[in-house]
Design goal:
By secondary structure, the protein is of the alpha/beta class. The protein has 12 helices and 13 strands.
Amino acid sequence: MSPRARKALIPAAGRGTRFLPFTKAVPKELAPIVTTPTLELVISEAASVGVEQVLIVNGPGKPAITEYFEKDRDLEAALAAKGDQDSIELINRATELAQVTFTEQKEPKGLGHAIGHGEEFAAGEPFAVLLPDDLVDDRDELLGPMLDVQAEHGGVVIALLDVGPVEIEKYGCVVPADGADTDADVVPIAQLIEKPTAADAPSTLAIIGRYVLPPEIFDALRETPPGRGGEIQVTDAMNLLAQRGTPVHGVVFRGRRYDTGDRLEYVKAVVQLAARHPAIGADFRAWLREYEPEDA
């Protein structure tokens, strides 16, 4: 068994148009779940399973992301003058999770294009990719088991979620290998397809926002022409590797996941996670029990 991957790439160059006008000034990746940005929560997830280095693929006009992961000495001094050590720890938490570096994707040309910016960072090693729109509940495991599977089998490891026949056309999906037990926790994969129609989908196992990729992905991305939407799709590049014999495995996720890239699902995530928040959770749950919405 090879050592587990210790690096992770997080794409954050998108324009976040579904969250306008907020994202005209503030990157969507810094939208808070109560007080903690989704981006910090995703990095915390990676750090909790041993990831030590993180590359954020940022976009132009989003300096706030870089600033968030830098020390703010003036703010720290102001808090120290008030004796507010708790807040000092909060503002420094993100800077201490992992070694965070940045690169810029000048145009958002798809997830595959963003991942292609990480070749120097990967330096010939396997690495994880975490999409900041996908939050995994901290009570459930996903990335850790994926790192274990990649260390054992090599190749590509993807996170899978059974989304049913109606939702599958919103996702990349997979063809399990012949004889694969699709009820198992780890499923060998024969083929990957980017957003098929519901009628053409070979399964209801959708690819969600966690990947562990081998360094061979970069050559595959260079050979991958623009696909759906005129973008470089990492699903197409992973499928190219699969057809050339690279092992591909899916880890089936059956836990709690929050899609913060959708406005309604983001609000649901805030409500669900606020109800568990250590500072306000009890009061918020009590308020929810009493809340009776007025007619719209």
